[in-house]
Design a protein that fits this description.
Layout (H helix, E strand, L loop, with lengths): L6 E8 L3 E6 L2 E7 L2 E4 L5 E4 L1 H6 L7 E4 L2 E2 L2 E2 L2 H15 L9 E8 L5 H13 L2 E8 H9 L9 E6 L4 E7 L2 E8 L3 H16 L5 H11 L13 E6 L6 E6 L1 H7 L1 H16 L3 H10 L1 E4 L8 H9 L3 E3 L6 H11 L10
The chain binds adenosine-5'-triphosphate (ATP).
């Protein structure tokens, strides 16, 4: 080791929609999982929020892309560039020498060997010397503050951008899990398609996501309904500008199919749960994490349908990252980390 080499420890929640880095127990990077590359040289032009702002507005020499799809790396080179770019954001002070990185990165629980390898390779190419991995639902459970090593069953439903992960955790391990590729991005796609079909207005992905955040609902009747959201966009036929007010009720109908699929996956995961753990889950309730947990009425809908209380994690968008950060501090203690 040279005179100026040092090890930096970071935890990465590498998500389809957002990537979060924790360093010294604090969130230091929280950016959309997006890169902008120069088409001619493949060099990185921008990463995170800056790349997202370029999305849909680029000329022929720049391409913006999301390196992950459905929770897993879809573009290996872009993923590596993104991790590199985001790690650089952590090291704004020490530009003179590159630290050796000790990382904990989270991965979907349904990952194949090849997908795990892809995350490890990307992390190592981006400077990781000592790379550990943790399954996302395990990280979410730790982030929520559950004692994952206790002989007690807990069920986590983590609804991210690309995947919904449902897992039962007990004694420091995942007893059963179900991962489906229906999550927040599918709800956004449902809305985008619906706006064109129903209102004849063309909306981009970002606008559809804003509709979801402002008036998305898993129920057709809400106790505290949000005000209609006004959408601006071109008419699909005439290209003339339109202004369309959108209500939460119509959005609840348009995302109904996808929500039902998530509901069915939770039921199927419960069916596979061993009886002793099932009893613990009925007593403790089920924890919702990930950005999708913020959808209005989802906790109530699932509670009413399944008959077990659903609790939304305190900070659902950051639960996985927080848990990954705690795992980083306990690398030697947590035997469930993957090397
Ligand atoms: N208030 C909200 N209501 C509904 N959905 C939301 C809200 N806020 C964020 N989301 C959605 O949550 C998703 C992102 O969640 P999260 O950051 O947990 O996913 P991720 O970790 O990047 O994805 P994955 O776990 O699938 O790799 C996006 O689809 C986003 O649109």
């Amino acid at each position: 080791m040279g005179l100026f080499s040092f090890t930096q420890e970071i935890a990465i929640d590498l998500g389809t929609a957002n990537t979060i880095i924790i360093h010294n127990g604090k969130i230091v990077v929280d950016e959309p999982s997006m890169v902008a590359l120069d088409k001619r040289t493949d060099k990185l032009k921008a990463v995170g929020e800056t790349a997202r702002q370029m999305h849909g507005k680029t000329h022929e020499n720049i391409r913006t892309l999301r390196p992950l799809r459905d929770g897993v790396i879809a573009d290996f080179y872009a993923a590596e560039q993104m991790i590199r770019g985001m790690v650089k954001m952590v090291n704004t002070k020490n530009r003179w020498f590159t630290p050796s990185l000790r990382m904990v990165v989270c991965i979907p629980s349904g990952s194949t060997e090849v997908e795990i390898r892809a995350v490890r390779d990307s992390a190592e190419h981006a400077g990781g010397r000592d790379v550990y991995m943790i399954y996302e639902p395990m990280a979410a459970a730790i982030g929520i503050g559950l004692d994952v090593e206790a002989p007690e069953g807990n069920m986590i439903v983590d609804i991210g951008g690309g995947t919904t992960e449902i897992a039962v955790i007990s004694l420091g391990g995942i007893v059963s899990n179900k991962s489906i590729r229906i999550a927040g991005d599918d709800l956004t796609a449902d809305i985008q398609e619906y706006m064109g079909r129903q209102h004849n207005v063309k909306v981009g992905e970002r606008t559809a996501e804003m509709i979801k955040i402002n008036v998305g609902s898993a129920l057709t009747e809400l106790a505290n309904p949000p005000e209609d959201y006004i959408v601006h966009g071109p008419n699909r036929m005439t290209a003339l500008p339109m202004e369309v007010p959108v209500s939460y009720q119509e959005i609840s109908h348009c995302i109904e199919k996808s929500i039902s699929k998530i509901e069915a996956a939770v039921l199927s995961a419960l069916e596979q749960t061993p009886p002793e753990l099932y009893a613990d889950i009925v007593r403790n309730g089920i924890y919702l994490a990930g950005g999708g947990a913020l959808l209005r009425g989802l906790d109530k809908r699932l509670t009413d349908k399944i008959g077990i209380p659903f609790h939304i994690a305190e900070d659902p968008l950051h639960a996985v990252a927080k848990g990954t950060g705690i795992a980083l501090k306990n690398i030697d203690k947590f035997s469930f980390l993957i090397r």
